[in-house]
Design goal:
- By secondary structure, the chain is of the alpha/beta class.
- Helix content is 40%, strand content 11%.
- It has 6 helices and 9 strands.
- It has a 3-stranded parallel β-sheet with strand order 1-2-7. Strands 3-6 form a two-stranded parallel sheet.
- Helix 1 links the parallel strand 1 and strand 2.
- Helix 2 packs parallel to helix 4 and helix 2 packs across helix 6.
- The longest helix is centred in the first third of the chain and has 20 residues.
Length: 201
């Protein structure tokens, strides 16, 4: 599966399968290599190989270094010991969806008669601040009182507005995301709160 990081410094909004790539990090560059290698092997050897150009797909299993989990775990850490959540650019906008919806899209891609690279996204965009608001509201708190902006966490080459156009996936696969952004954040917060209670805090 690919990633929206391949678009990086976006050349058009929203991003489609025809949008030129412009990665802004080593991570994005490596994903682009995977995309072209897959395409090359498909065209050279007739392999059934395709790339899902997946926009941010999240769940309670997301790595702790990603901003979504950093916020939900940070919220729990604040409840535990009063440590504020340190964040970077609150205005960064992303197209966040639930991982289980995206896994369904990947499975559907593999059921097609012909392999095809597709953008998998919600077609919606939300800011890091919106994510903070929803996460802290889940426990009745105002996010502004428990977060701090630290310039160390602002990317040197910030990715522009990322929002995918999943029209082709809807047309080809009959796919659309089912879990809303609000539901996604609520599920992640509730999972981390459950871990906090399990630890006896």
């Amino acid at each position: 599966a690919g990633t929206s990081e391949m678009f990086g410094k976006v050349q058009e909004t929203p991003q489609t399968e025809k949008t030129p790539f412009y990665p802004r990090s080593p991570y994005g560059v490596s994903k682009l290599f995977g995309y072209w290698a897959t395409k090359n092997y498909r065209e050279s050897y007739g392999l059934f190989a395709c790339t899902g150009i997946l926009f941010n797909h999240e769940s309670e299993r997301r790595g702790v270094d990603f901003v979504t989990r950093k916020i939900t775990i940070g919220l729990v850490k604040w409840l535990k010991d009063g440590t504020p959540v340190e964040l970077g650019n609150l205005d960064a906008k992303r197209d966040w969806g639930h991982a289980k919806d995206y896994v369904e899209a990947m499975w559907l891609m593999l059921q097609q008669d012909e392999p095809e690279d597709l953008v998998i996204a919600t077609g919606e965009t939300h800011t890091v601040q919106e994510l903070c608001e929803l996460a802290f509201a889940r426990v009745g708190l105002d996010w502004q009182q428990y977060t701090v902006v630290d310039p160390r966490y602002v990317r040197p080459a910030e990715v522009d507005l990322l929002i995918g156009d999943p029209s082709k996936a809807r047309q080809r696969l009959g796919w659309h995301h089912k879990v809303s952004f609000d539901e996604l954040v609520r599920e992640m917060v509730d999972s981390d709160l459950t871990e906090l209670r399990r630890d006896g805090a």
